[in-house]
Amino acid sequence: MSNDHSIPRVALKKKTPDVSAAMGSLHAAAVSAAQDAKVEPEILELIRIRASQLNGCAFCLDMHTKDARAAGETEQRIYALNAWRETPFFTERERAALALTEAVTLVHDGHVPDAVYAEAAEVFDEAQIAALIWAATVINAYNRIAIATRMAPGGYQPVKK
């Protein structure tokens, strides 16, 4: 992969504001569905970070690791997320959500295996699984937008709550 960042890229929000707004609305709806289904906010942030790791999205990694830290996530868990299967740091629900996120993100590697879905269904109800799939889908879309337009990491600051 080239590190040549000299080619200017399109400013999507400026050129396609209606589509950008629709994407923002999709994100808001996915967050709302997760809240309504009582999916832990920590799980949503882990989903966003893990998908961004898999996709190599520096902008989204910068954003979501900062958001996770601001929400109280530990450095240890953030650093170990890339190897979550090898650590004792994640709950059964988090592990199921991470496995589902990886399957959705890497769908070209064999779709979402029944075993991964079944594992999620053991610890999440259908509304929660739907919310997890939407969360993974939205962050994957945002990763592709940030990568395609070469959004620069580093400047994002979490909103104080």
Describe what is shown at a glance.
The chain is mostly helical and 161 residues long. The protein has helices at residues 12-15, 17-36, 41-55, 58-70, 75-80, 92-105, 114-123, 126-148. The chain starts with 11 loop residues before the first helix and ends in a 13-residue tail after the last helix.
Strand content: under 5%
Regarding CATH, which class? Mainly Alpha
Q: What ranges have pLDDT less than 50 throughout 5 or more consecutive residues?
A: none
Q: Helical element count?
A: 8
| Whole-angstrom Rg | 16 Å
Portion of residues within helices: 55-70%
Count of discrete domains: 1
Shape: globular
SS elements, strand count: 0
> Mean pLDDT, nearest integer?
94
Task: Give the full name of the CATH homologous superfamily.
Answer: AhpD-like
CATH topology: AhpD-like
Structural class: mainly alpha
The arrangement of helices and strands along the chain is HHHHHHHH
CATH architecture: Up-down Bundle
Sheet bearing the most strands, described?
Answer: none
Distance between the termini: 38 Å
Description:
By secondary structure, this protein is mainly alpha-helical. It has a single domain, classed as AhpD-like, CATH 1.20.1290. The chain is built from 8 helices and no strands. The chain has helices at residues 12-15, 17-36, 41-55, 58-70, 75-80, 92-105, 114-123, 126-148. The radius of gyration is 16 Å and the shape is globular. The model has no long low-confidence stretch (mean pLDDT 94).
SSE layout:
Elements: H1 12-15, H2 17-36, H3 41-55, H4 58-70, H5 75-80, H6 92-105, H7 114-123, H8 126-148
Helix pairs in contact: 2-8, 3-4, 3-6, 3-8, 6-7, 6-8
